[in-house]
Design brief:
The chain has 95 residues and is mainly α. The chain folds into 2 domains: 7-50; 62-94, no CATH class. Helices cover 39% and strands 8% of the residues. The chain is built from 3 helices and 2 strands. The chain has a two-stranded antiparallel sheet with strand order 1-2. Strand 1 (85-88) and strand 2 (91-94) form a beta hairpin. The radius of gyration is 26 Å and the shape is elongated. The two termini are 51 Å apart. The relative contact order is 0.06.
């Protein structure tokens, strides 16, 4: 099956991949509908440009920690948050 033409074709294809009709597939129709909905939602979220869900590791170094700490005069304990303001065409936005 290259491309299922309908939702029913997709469900039938999935059941055949699981072994039906040789094996009895004990799944309710509501469960199948939920799983197909989840699969389609996952595809729509991640299909653009072949996006693949990936986890990357990054080792935090002392330099990273130092860049995030406040200056000695402000709050040397903890990380710093910054704010910025911009005025464009008379409208001011703060970040």
């Amino acid at each position: 099956m290259a491309q299922p033409a309908s939702r029913t074709d997709l469900v039938n294809y999935c059941k055949r991949q699981l072994g039906a009709p040789v094996l009895e597939i004990n799944v309710a129709d509501e469960q199948i509908d939920d799983l197909v909905d989840d699969a389609l939602q996952y595809f729509h979220e991640r299909h653009f440009d072949g996006v693949v869900q990936t986890y990357l590791k990054y080792k935090i170094t002392q330099d990273d920690i130092d860049r995030g700490l406040g200056r000695a005069g402000s709050n040397p304990m903890g990380l710093v948050t910054t704010t910025a303001s911009a005025t464009i065409d008379g409208a001011t936005a703060s970040f």
